[in-house]
Amino acid sequence: MREIELIDEIRKRAGSPGEDVIAGIGDDCAVLKYDGKRYLLWATDMLVEGTHFYLRQAGYKRVGRKAVAVNISDVAAMGGVPGYITVTIGVPPGTKKAAIRGIYDGIFGICKEYDIKVVGGDTNRSDTLVIDVSVIGFVEKKRLITRSGAKKGELVLITGPVRNGRKEHLDFSPRLEEARFLSGRYKVSSMIDVSDGIAPDIGRVCRESGVGCRLYEGAIPLSKALTLHDALYYGESFELLFTMGVKEARKLFLEVKSRKQEPRYFVIGEIVPKKDGLTLIGKEGRISALRMEGFRHL
């Protein structure tokens, strides 16, 4: 079963989440009522040896760091700030204490960097190494960004240049600073972090928003040695993909220019009516369909 099909089935069986849930299944985080000014953000991500990493290449510390980083990225995609995590690990029999300490060195290292507290978790025996991190964060109500707000005529933007997920997925820095900058100063209508590839992730935004999109090959900023195919369909770059109106984008680029900053934000496409589907315009004008296929978790 494809991941998107499984999510649809789970969402159908879960039914209505109730009035205290602002956003639930289908977004980067669950959004729950908290107090008069903020929402609570709640998400979880699991890393499995052989699917998300190979220990001989990664090492225990880098795996521990990534397990937290992917959760920070989810919170960033909602415009929020992470606060607390729990960590559950499944460890193969015979794993040395030094290896487990290495995992937690990576976990506590990035938690210190982003001022996150480890407040619980669980340990168990497993055939392969599994690390499951659950994160709680917070977002001011006026800063909340979901996947479901994209509108026809808006622009599609991405932070970048897009990182090479094959090479950098263990060491990336979540785009938390960029997300807070955007959510605090601009009207961002939707956002998602690129974990599975630009194509399936913009597809998720379009699906939740009830729209289509048109991306332009020549506008997608690629880091050195990154192929367009990997940017579209491999993912693991954890850049932020977002939408906003033309006037807002103009304000964004004028501010970036006035600060004499290196470009961090790039227009790569536009939102179109749902009936127009998801397409890519090649450098020579050739039109091709974007596939809802990316990094395979299942």
According to CATH, the fold-level topology of the largest domain is Phosphoribosyl-aminoimidazole Synthetase, Chain A, domain 2
Question: What's the average pLDDT?
Answer: 94
Gap from first CA to last CA? 7 Å
Series of H and E elements: HEEEHHEHEEEHHEHEHEHEEE
Describe the structure.
- The chain has 298 residues and is an alpha+beta fold.
- The protein folds into two domains: 3-142, 2-Layer Sandwich (60s Ribosomal Protein L30, Chain: A); 145-289, PurM-like C-terminal domain (Phosphoribosyl-aminoimidazole Synthetase, Chain A, domain 2, Alpha-Beta Complex), CATH 3.90.650.
- 32% of the residues lie in helices and 29% in strands.
- The strands form two sheets. It has a seven-stranded mixed beta sheet, sandwiched between helices. Strands 1-2-3-6-4-5 form a six-stranded mixed beta sheet.
- Strand 2 and strand 3 form a beta hairpin.
